[in-house]
Specification:
Blueprint (H helix, E strand, L loop, with lengths): L3 E7 L5 H17 L3 E7 L3 H11 L3 E4 L10 H9 L8 H8 L1 H10 L7 E5 H6 L7 E4 L10 E3 L16 E6 L4 E8 L2 E9 L7 H5 L5 E3 L6 H18 L4 E9 L8 E8 L9 H8 L4 H10 L6
Parallel strand pairs: 1-2, 1-3
Antiparallel strand pairs: 4-7, 5-6, 5-7, 8-9, 8-11, 9-10, 11-12
């Protein structure tokens, strides 16, 4: 009898539409791999969600949720209490990864280079420059570059005008250079992709709009830098206590002639995008793992902390 897998998708974060796409694609690949798949569009109704999950009698829950309330440990904790195995990282690792200031301190303590910065209030960010330009302002607990602003020389915009992400704001030095990302699968760093965009910044639109970005696989960088990106990504995965599949986003500063290039870790995504053309499946394919094989591995390695 085929293993029963329930896919949680949608949710109610700023990344709902992305999550629906991930859930649909992952569910289709799981069916192709021979699993009995049921999908649930997650709404803000905890009691109803628990009833829906119980009704599907899952042997594994595949979490295709992105952003707050799906990627931050809350769903994971609920499934732990229910005793249902699930894909991706556990409750604590998920919560740590989503809390960017805490994760950044843990990375720095582990010897992983991170951009210099500080936590400021919304009022301080609105009052004037909190760091020398160029610098970055971003929410403390969102994904997919939601709410990220780069403050450059001559920029007179007000990044706090439409801010809806709470009173705490992360301010970081802007790292010049290139955007790279690395997928980790269990105890293995699969490879590194460089992401380019005509928008000049890999923001939400660049990530998800058709033609918004281009992926260079493998990333065109010297082999020792490529291996260092893999090493740092695997170390970040382990530092947070992640399991399953993650994706680390980094900046690669090779802009200073005569000086060695430097890598800086930006964040770890514990539930990266999961369509066949998303970054992690793309890197998995480059490593010889097709999409149905990837999601099957995730299901077979699912667990809970009951």
């Amino acid at each position: 009898m085929a293993k029963r897998v329930t896919v949680l998708m949608g949710g109610f974060s700023a990344e709902r539409e992305v999550s629906l796409n991930s859930g649909k694609a992952a569910g289709g690949a799981l069916k192709q791999a021979g699993y009995a798949v049921t999908s649930i569009d997650v709404r803000r109704d905890a009691r109803g969600l628990i009833d829906e999950i119980h009704a599907t009698k899952p042997e594994v829950v595949f979490i295709a949720l992105h952003g707050r309330f799906g990627e931050d440990g809350r769903i994971q904790g609920m499934l732990d209490i229910m005793g249902v195995p699930y894909t991706h990282s556990g409750m604590l690792a998920s919560a740590l990864a989503m809390d960017k200031p805490v994760a950044k301190r843990l990375f720095a303590d582990a010897g992983i280079p991170v951009p210099e910065g500080k936590l400021v209030t919304r009022a301080e960010a609105a009052a004037g420059d909190v760091l020398p330009r160029p610098f970055v302002l971003k929410p403390t607990n969102e994904g997919s570059s939601v709410g990220v602003h780069i403050i450059r020389a001559g920029d007179n915009s007000d990044p706090m005008r439409d801010w809806t992400f709470g009173e705490a704001v992360m301010a970081e030095r802007f790292i010049p250079g290139r955007e790279v990302t690395c997928a980790v699968m269990g105890d293995r760093a699969l490879g590194v992709t460089e992401i380019t965009s005509d928008r000049g910044f890999y923001d939400y639109t660049a990530k998800y709009a058709d033609g918004g970005s281009r992926h260079l696989v493998p990333a065109p960088m010297p082999q020792h830098d490529y291996e260092e990106a893999r090493r740092l990504s695997l170390l970040a995965h382990r530092t947070l206590g992640c399991r399953g599949v993650t994706r680390s986003d980094l900046r690669y500063d090779d802009t200073r002639p005569g000086e060695p290039a430097r890598l800086y870790l930006l964040e770890v995504n514990t539930q990266p995008g999961m369509t066949a053309t998303s970054l992690v499946p793309e890197l998995a394919a480059h490593a010889g793992i097709d999409f149905p094989q990837l999601v099957s591995w995730m299901v077979e390695n699912a667990r809970c902390d009951a």
